[in-house]
Amino acid sequence: MDEGVINDLISAALCGICAWELLRLWQAGSARRPLWRKLAPWVGLVLAVALWSSSVGLEFATVFVLLLTTLFVWLLIFWRQLRLSRESTKATRAKSDKAEKTLFIAKDRRVWAKATAFIAAGPLAGIGSVMLCVALLPVLPFSEPTRLVLMAFLFPTIWAIAAVWACADAKAWRPPIVLMGIGLGSLLTLYI
Amino acid sequence: MLYASKQLIKQMLHAHKWMGVSLGAGLYLICLSGTVLVFGHEFERWQQPHIDEFDTLSPRAIDNARQQILQRSDTSPETIWVMPPTDGMPRAHVATAEHEWFTDSAGNLTEVPLEEAGFAAMLRHLHYYLHLPENFGMIIVGIFGVMLLGLALSGVLAHPAIIKDAFKLRLEQSYRLQQTDIHNRLSVWSLPFSLMIALTGAYIGLISVMVVVAAPLLYNNDLTAIMDAVYGADPIMDGEISPFDTRRALDELRRVAPEAEPIYLAYQHPGSRKQFLEIAATLPGRLTYSEIYRFNSAGDYVNHQGLSDGPVARVVAYSVYRLHFGQFGGFGVKLLYVVFGLALTVVCAGGINIWLAKRKRETRINSAWAALVWGTPLGLSGSALLSVFVPTLATGTFWGITALVLVAGIVTNCATKVRASLQWLLSASLVTLALAHLWYTEAHTTAGIGLAVDLILLLVGLTGVWLLSRQAVIDSPEPNLLPGD
Questions:
Q1: Model's pTM, two decimal places?
Q2: Coil, strand or helix at B16
């Protein structure tokens, strides 16, 4: 068999073993375990990346390990569910109903608050974040391509965080004011 | 997350809920179309199964293709692109800004690709632009990427028991808890994938916004200057006007970068003193879309653009596309992307299902959502079916079916009935699609990609029929809901 294929198989198997170890670690819960047992699956994943890198390169290896480990974890979750479904009891049902109730903690807002949050999370957060990123462009201590690409990635990230905040803040008037302030402040900075 | 205050969790849950409910339908559409689009190249080949497929295109054939398209062009083109066959697309084609043709292995023009018509183009336009005008649509899809990022962040912060529940899946419990567990397990473990898809999607969609805002404020309105700063500028050539020596350029490429695999050749400004040849090539083990090597018309190596070994930012920016679309590492990666894309689609649908279940009553919204969830894949399948016969109808058919199903769902006002009917229809339409394509295009006469795709569609459709006939529950019933309005 080709050396690369053997390498691929060993790396993939290592991902599976690490996923299994993560499950065992989780099942142990708060029970005392030596540190090396807690670190083992994570170190194993790093080793899998290192091993796979030798045949496909670091970039592909990182993606492969992330995706395959997740896939193995999903399979383990499904397998565990199949095993446990036979042992389901009334007690677990009662417990689950209690767990559901904890999800009902958020109250609905009034229409005007929803409309304000929508405007703040959409256009205002978008304008605020793009203006902030453009204003930061000339002052960052990196090379030009680095600054541009960094800001091109930061722009959607800042927008996303601002959108979450706009929807989450209990005081609906606060995010629009702050976001408008950021947008106008950034624009002023650029002209100054 | 573990030590987040109750107030923060409550606020994050609120944000997660409203962002999800407002954008769930659009995100579902984008995630589903993106998942199917992972096999975009295969669908392009499937819709025209009779086009010649081969492994290599000789330099003589490349020159022949270039000459032939020049003869068919009314004006002198700025650029001529020749795409030799690759592993993912074993077909050659040649294009200018106005025309595009497939070629045979000798470089003779054969047939026009179904570029702007047909199912594959419809799918691509749906995922890239939601069928809106291109620039505007790209920005809207980019904004959905931003919101997906926000949903992922708020979802993590709203999940106080993220580690405690890491392996829990309680399918035997109430419908709401089933949906919650599926939603959480799929989304938490695929968080790196979701973040990557959201961030790269937002980058692709919104880079134009950043450029348009930054250009007048910092670059004297010069959009090209920004793109050149990120991706590198074209070389300035001023040489003799002589015929391109493609063979020598390809030999030079093998010398300069022996492992590079050409994906296209771009003849820039042919027939002028500025003319030069670019050869874009993938490099093994690298995510960057390609490295671009430049040659003068005599075939001498000039330089390369630094997309694989230039500034880190440039390499990252040019790696975004293959990472987002799963076009690296072969068929296995495509399969993984389909699994993870489906998972993200299920997460989108599941989020709305949880919200609907929490309402504790069934209204027309429930049946409308069921109609959208199952009607969209039916629309895709119906679009593919009709485009086998009339390619130009692909887009209209998709929206027609989806809208019709949505209206029918709202009128029916029974989510369970709508879901079951649409699952049957979807399975039947996949079987019909495969058989119709096999019959109409005679794909069964060649053991190529057409036959392979048809067999997979048939298998999926028949599996659906089998599961449904066994009354297996593809999408679980909602025991907690009360019937009627």
A1: 0.90
A2: helix
